[in-house]
Amino acid sequence: MGLSGRRVVVTGASPGSLGAATARVLREWGADVVVTTRTDPDAAARAIGDDVVGRSLDLTDRDSVAAFGDWYDDRSGAAGLDVLVNNAGIHLDLRSSWHEPLRTADGHEIHWRTNYLGTMQLTHGLLPALARAAGRTGDARVVTVVSKLHERGRNEFLFNPLTPYNSWDAYGLSKLALVHAMTELDRRYAAEGLSAYAVHPGSVYTNIADRGLEGHRLLTGVRRLFAPLERRILVSPRDGAQTSIHCATAPSLPSGYYRDCALTTPSPEATDVEVAARLWEETGRWIVAA
Ligand SMILES: NC(=O)c1ccc[n+]([C@@H]2O[C@H](COP(=O)([O-])OP(=O)(O)OC[C@H]3O[C@@H](n4cnc5c(N)ncnc54)[C@H](OP(=O)(O)O)[C@@H]3O)[C@@H](O)[C@H]2O)c1
């Protein structure tokens, strides 16, 4: 597929991740690709391919997100941004051992802050660049990697503390919020040529579980032992990236929730458009209150 002239940002593209696999294919197909990681973005970019640009981005840090948005805005000029792939994310405490949430420096639950708020601040910051590309080509896109686990999220906890706390529910809630955000983004901007996709990649062998088990030496050791088996059961990053790549590139693709490269229906909670609109408004207030 020829993507020459298409400008793409892929967040969370560390070696071995879905983001790296996504960026690699988009670059192979000719796109101008910028990737982000928190640590050593240049090395991550080099590992992905020639002429891939790496940039540091920490979604939990307002200044870092704002700096990335400003830098990209300058870099892209009148051409703007054709595709934003919101891929970066975390799923911590896979053992559900936390009874209280781990909070970021600014007081938010860690999954909510990283996966949802940080991603939304970035998306809002890049909207002007996306709008410029949409105005030029009529086809700009935001592709956001969510998870089937959004089904664990409940709309009431989008606006109230999650009780009792469970890290899987917190992860699911952050992904439910992102599904709502893609619905609302499409409702607001589709007429301007900006489409929005929420993507479940499947169960993929990446670094996410290592991070989710950090601090548990026994479990980490057992997991290492069974890594060859796990690799056979789970999907490879390249295969897992296919739905993101499809949503980033397939011509005339309707907005919505995708898995296995097909449009499908998210959880009933995720289809409440009034909740999506309310969440967008509240998130917008949080973003401008910086
Ligand atoms: N793997 C699966 O089975 C699966 C299933 C469903 C959904 N997902 C979703 O797929 C996406 C990609 O995950 P993955 O499986 O590829 O995991 P991964 O290998 O752990 O990659 C996650 C990426 O996110 C970045 N990241 C983490 N915290 C960040 C922060 N605060 N700010 C900016 N970037 C941050 C990491 O950068 P650093 O390395 O620099 O920290 C890394 O590049 C995530 O949104 C995840 O929720 C994965």
Q: Helicity level, as a percent range? A: 40-55%
Structural class: alpha/beta
- Whole-number count of domains: 1
Distance between the termini: 41 Å
How much of the sequence lies in strands comes to: 5-15%
- pLDDT below 50 for ≥5 consecutive residues: which ranges? none
User: Largest sheet, if any?
Assistant: 8 strands, mixed
The CATH superfamily name is: NAD(P)-binding Rossmann-like Domain
State the CATH topology: Rossmann fold
> Briefly, what CATH class?
Alpha Beta
Bound molecules: NADP nicotinamide-adenine-dinucleotide phosphate
Mean pLDDT: 96
Number of helices: 11
Task: Calculate Rg over CA atoms.
Answer: 18 Å
Shape: globular
Q: What is the β-strand count?
A: 8
CATH architecture: 3-Layer(aba) Sandwich
Order of helices and strands: EHEHEHEHEHEHHHHHEEH
Q: What are the salient characteristics of this protein?
A:
single chain, about 290 residues, alpha/beta, Rossmann fold, eight-stranded mixed beta sheet, about 45% helix, binds NADP nicotinamide-adenine-dinucleotide phosphate
